[in-house]
Design goal:
GO terms for molecular function: [methionine synthase] reductase (NADPH) activity; flavin adenine dinucleotide binding; FMN binding. By secondary structure, the protein is α/β, with parallel strands linked by helices. It folds into 3 domains: 156 residues, Flavodoxin domain (Rossmann fold, 3-Layer(aba) Sandwich), CATH 3.40.50; 195 residues, NADPH-cytochrome p450 Reductase, Chain A, domain 3, CATH 1.20.990.10; 155 residues, 3-Layer(aba) Sandwich (Rossmann fold), CATH 3.40.50. Helices cover 30% and strands 19% of the residues. α17 links the parallel β22 and β23. The two termini are 48 Å apart.
Length: 697
């Protein structure tokens, strides 16, 4: 290839949190070694590419956000290709391969990628390479790595066909890829994909660290047969390693003597208007001896243009933990410079294509501002970051272990000791003390600190000018890979912020004995397009919300109560609520639900307590799905005969799937149909937006 110009392909990515962009950059970096040139753009940069006239192969990497939406950076693109006036041969000239990213914990797995893939096919585009669907639930790399390995052969064949004017034969390319992909056709992450053998993949597109056994002996001796974050066992400890290519440096940080002001937090948000609002009330809903601590916060939005409906969500802009920022500054040797202003710019002569300062990093601010408000220092380090950290590590044993953790051979160790253990940069720097990364490296590799989303737990009709929300204070216990316990970034910060409201002292009370705290937080709306009350109040509905999953339903009931008061002549359908928690006396979050029952707002209230002992001859149901089964006839009647709505809110992994299974069983039993038929009915309810979920993992 040395005498030929590199063949071009178009590389598009659409990302929400940076993962799709990082994978696209990996493809871009590897392309040169294969004699190819990737013309890379974010999907939102629609002025820089044109699929209507694109003649070269197109590679798309796209993530999924929310409950199955394309990422924000793909919305304009998706809206454009969804135009119903486009003819079925609109993209007949287009050859493409698509890699979708998702999380099978959510119902609409990889729906962002599937939506684009399906629409491109409908408009006549042809695959030159099989679609890959990677699952963040078990590790994206299980699909991403072999998909990228097989991409190069597919691209070269597609470009060769194009060169020979044989576009009609494009469809044959996919079938020739089975060898490159190890017979993984559509790389949809199912059980067989998890068994992919990555160890024999060779060195394609990566740096090969062929260390001799005498080099390996320099690693600190393993004291037992069990691997850990800081040491390995054979075969990994004795293997030659295939690691990612070293990402090029592209950021330069300059310290400045001048003073000034940090940017306003609103400048960090691209989603629209932000609102700084006071916290007017905080209530602990759980008893001190409850397993989880649940708090209710009330915000004053009266003097803002913030609008919401019950069922909507909103986002809180939160900082990193102060102590963790200080620790990071100390390890970086910058404790004395936290309040110094720095200028962040692109490094001259960088080899990174299209390098630019990350949008979430201000051009000028204090170092502490960047580490506190801009970078997700709790993020699980990607393999490319580990590869870069290798170059900052002086101890031979530590260097080798970091190489193993980012290598193909160490894939299971990475999953076990970093990904599944929720290890962050600070944990790594404590575990590998000779690793001394630069500030610029952190800015290059740490993702944007994301605002945290919460369900609204109030109605503006019931409480004008007020917005309430409920959350559990998240706890991460200490473990082998994490020396100290931690609270959630946002929930821990909020709990600390409102402590004076929860436990007022004489210093925080005014002369009337009321709290005079004026703590403010910055928020912005995140409307939900579907998770709202039925437009017709006469339509019955069922709400299932154990634990803090009850949050949006309190808003539903407040709204419904006010509507009943304002419109006594309206016909209101049945309203069912299924609630569950561990202990009736410790974490029954809203005992005032009975008030809604007594005034007729709520027709049926079913509660269960999973950890309370019972002396009853027949044990009461423990979980909401068990109570649903006891009400099978009524549930089926509401859904099938009365065309009602079904809402589920709460934990995905331990509740929402069980509720879904219970509904399938109920439909199957009451319709006297087989399970497959019942699953089809449930799918139709989802499609009609009558079975709705607001869930998290």
């Amino acid at each position: 290839m040395c005498c030929e110009s590199k063949r071009r392909f178009l590389l598009l990515y659409a990302t929400q949190k940076g993962q799709a962009k990082a994978i696209a950059e990996e493809i871009w970096q590897q392309a040169g070694a294969h004699g190819l040139e990737a013309d890379m753009h974010c999907m939102s940069e629609m002025d820089k590419y044109n699929l209507e006239t694109e003649k070269d192969p197109v590679v798309i990497v796209i993530s999924t956000t929310g409950t199955g939406d394309p990422p924000d950076t793909a919305r304009k693109f998706v809206k454009k290709i969804q135009d119903k006036t486009l003819p079925p041969d609109h993209f007949a000239h287009l050859q493409y391969g698509l890699l979708g990213l998702g999380d099978s914990e959510y119902m609409f797995f990889c729906n962002g990628g599937r939506t684009v893939d399906r629409r491109l096919q409908e408009l006549g585009a042809q695959h030159f390479y099989d679609t890959g669907l990677a699952d963040d639930c078990v590790g994206l790399e299980l699909v991403v790595d072999p998909w990228i390995d097989g991409l190069w052969l597919a691209l070269k064949e597609a470009l060769q066909l194009q060169k020979e004017g044989m576009n009609s034969a494009v469809g044959a390319v996919s079938s020739s890829l089975s060898t490159a992909l190890h017979a993984v056709h559509e790389l949809d992450l199912s059980s067989e994909v998890q068994n992919l053998k990555l160890e024999d993949e060779g060195a394609r597109g990566s740096d090969v660290l062929s260390q001799k056994l005498d080099d390996v002996s320099l690693v600190a001796p393993v004291r037992d047969a069990e691997p850990s974050l800081i040491h390995s066992v054979p075969p990994v400890s004795q293997s030659a390693l295939n690691t990612p290519a070293l990402p090029p440096e592209y950021i330069e940080v300059q310290f400045q003597d001048t003073q000034g002001e940090n940017p306003h937090l609103s400048s960090l948000i691209s989603e629209g208007a932000t609102f700084e609002v006071p916290v007017t009330k905080a209530v602990q809903l759980t008893r001190e001896d409850a397993i989880k601590t649940a708090l209710l916060l009330e915000l004053d939005i009266a003097d803002t243009a913030f609008e919401y409906q019950p069922g909507d969500a909103f986002c809180v802009i939160c900082p990193n933990n102060v102590s963790e920022v200080e620790q990071l500054l100390h390890i970086l040797g910058l404790s004395e410079k936290g309040d110094d202003f720095v200028c962040v710019k692109v490094k001259q002569g960088t080899k990174k294509k299209g390098a630019s300062r990350p949008q979430h990093i201000p051009e000028r601010s204090t170092l502490k501002f960047i580490l506190t408000w801009c970078l997700e220092i709790r993020a699980i380090p990607k393999k490319a970051f580990l590869r870069a950290l290798v170059e900052c590590t002086s101890d031979v044993g530590e260097k080798r272990r970091l190489q193993e953790l980012c290598s193909r051979q160490g894939a299971s160790d990475y999953t076990r000791f970093i990904r599944d253990s929720n290890v962050c940069l600070l944990d790594l720097l404590h575990a590998f003390p000779s690793c001394k990364p630069s500030l610029s490296l952190l800015i290059e590799h740490l993702p944007k600190l994301q605002a945290r989303s919460y369900s609204v737990s109030s109605s503006n009709l019931y409480q004008p000018g007020r917005l309430c929300f409920v959350f559990n204070v998240v706890e991460f216990p200490a473990g082998p890979s994490r020396p100290v316990s931690r609270k959630g970034v946002c929930t821990g910060w909020l709990a600390e912020l409102v402590a004076p409201l929860l436990h007022p002292s004489k210093n925080t009370l005014d002369t009337k004995g009321e709290s005079c705290s004026t703590e403010k937080i910055s928020i912005f709306p995140r409307p939900n397009n579907a998770f709202h009350l039925p437009a017709d109040p006469s339509v019955p509905f069922i709400m299932v919300g154990p634990g803090t999953g009850i949050s949006p339903f309190v808003g539903f009931l407040q709204h419904r109560q006010k509507l009943r008061e304002q419109h006594p002549d309206w016909d209101f359908g049945e309203a069912w609520l299924f609630f569950g928690c561990r202990h009736q006396d410790r974490d029954y979050l809203f005992k005032q639900l009975r008030c809604f029952l007594e005034n007729g707002t709520l027709t049926h209230l079913k509660v269960c307590f999973s950890r309370d002992s019972s002396t009853a001859q027949v044990a009461p149901p423990k979980y909401v799905q068990d109570v649903l089964r006891l009400c099978a006839k009524e549930v089926a009647r509401v859904l099938l005969k009365e065309r009602g709505y079904f809402y589920v809110c709460g934990d995905k992994k331990h509740m929402a799937d069980d509720v879904s299974d219970a509904v399938v069983d109920i439909l199957s039993m009451e319709m006297e149909a087989d399970k497959l038929e019942a699953m089809k009915i449930l799918a139709m309810l989802r499609e009609a937006k009558r079975y709705l979920q607001d869930v998290w993992s």
